[in-house]
Design brief:
2 helices
C-alpha cells in the first residue's frame, strides 16, 4: 500500500498488564483489519505492545492518503474494538481507554 504512518497511543488508566493486553490487542487488530471498506480504500493496521513505553505502537498502511483526521479515526475505532475485548473493562476510565499524546 502506498501510504504508511506510525503513531502511538497510551492507556488512560494506570493499569498495564501485558498478559491481559496481548490477546485483547490481537483480537482487536483482527477485528479492525476484517472490516469491509469501499473499493480502493484498503487499510491495514499492525499493533505492537511497547512494554517499556507502556503504549501501543500502531502502524497504519492505506491505499488513500492518511490525514491527521483519518489517523485519529483509526485510533478511535481501534480503541472501541479493544474496549470490547474480555478483561479490558478495568482499563476504561471516564468512558475512555486510549489517548494520543
Amino acid at each position: 500500500m502506498p501510504f504508511s504512518t506510525q503513531f502511538y497511543v497510551y492507556f488512560v488508566s494506570g493499569l498495564f498488564s501485558p498478559a491481559v493486553l496481548r490477546p485483547a490487542i490481537a483480537a482487536a487488530e483482527a477485528a479492525f483489519n476484517a472490516v469491509h471498506r469501499r473499493a480502493g480504500h484498503r487499510m491495514h493496521i499492525t499493533v505492537v505492545l511497547n512494554v517499556p513505553g507502556r503504549r501501543l505502537d500502531i502502524t497504519l498502511d492505506s491505499d488513500v492518503y492518511i490525514s491527521r483526521e483519518m489517523q485519529l479515526r483509526v485510533a478511535q475505532f481501534f480503541s472501541k474494538a479493544l474496549s470490547l475485548q474480555p478483561g479490558l473493562t478495568p482499563y476504561i476510565k471516564g468512558r475512555r481507554l486510549l489517548e494520543q499524546r
